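Issue 218. Parser rejects a valid record. Input:
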Amino acid sequence: MRYKLLGKSGLRVSEMALGTMTFGEDWGWGASKEESKKIFDSFAEAGGNFIDTANRYTEGTSERYVGEFIAADRDYFVLATKYTLFDNRNNPNASGNHRKNMVRSLEASLQRLKTDYIDVFWLHAWDFTTPVEEVMQSLDNLVRAGKILYVGISDTPAWVVSQANTLAALRGWTPFIGLQTQYSLVERTPERDLLPMARAFDMSVTAWGALGSGVLTGKYNQPDQDAEGRAAQWGAISPHNLTIAQKVVDIAAEIGCNPSHVALSWVRQQPGSLIPLIGARKVSQLEDNLGCLNVTLTDEQMAQLNDVSRIELGFPHDFLSTNEIKDIVYGGMRDQIDM
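Output the parser choked on:
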């Protein structure tokens, strides 16, 4: 395992992060405590130090397990958790991005994790009701209080993140250094605005769903394999996505590795600082995913995967990339300008 600096900071995190939404059986499909510990230990033994959880994961069980697992060497691990999602349906202020929920959710997470600080505190999803100023000042207050060290933002439009970090720079508040978003060969729409925005602000990106809800493992290309779990819930299985998965399978056969290694390596080799989030219900699944660390795709293989999964960027991106518009924007001089 190698390490990356997380965004515009000096924080060193492993090149893959362990997602722990599977820790606990409260939702009927996760890992037992014993299996969760095996998954955690396998990740740590491989050199992984970046652990990602959230207040909602398995009704708080994930945080309790993680807190217990890291207790023996708290300083080694970079602990990330999230707030926003509800933990009480009967309380209108027990969810959202606002200051009251932020503080109460953090305090509850600290108790479950049995620690007095969080390394990276993520806003989990944008609520479209809380002012950006309230969010950024409140997060900065928690940093100044020593309860969190860095802040990140997940599942939020690029224009909101841009506004937040510009405001933070203007006011001297703590900026977001990380962006968490869905990203894979079957979900490339973040390339329109989210990923360019992250590069512009020097933010690292932790990519969830890098295996496309299991589609990119190639298992749904097998005859009589029915959709299950997220693949069924989110409609991830389509003729187009199965075509992409088949190309992943074909390249894996050429290399002599598993399809998951190819799909994860494609994410790892994208421009900017991309960190795949890997989760597992069994330690064998985690160990399989970690095998991608030994795979480097060639330029030709990357091009093949890019071509089969290509999306339309839409307006204004496709418009601005036409030769006609380039000509009138640059006055015919673009080829003479070092970009």
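Fixed in the parser; the record now loads. The two ends are 33 Å apart (CA to CA).
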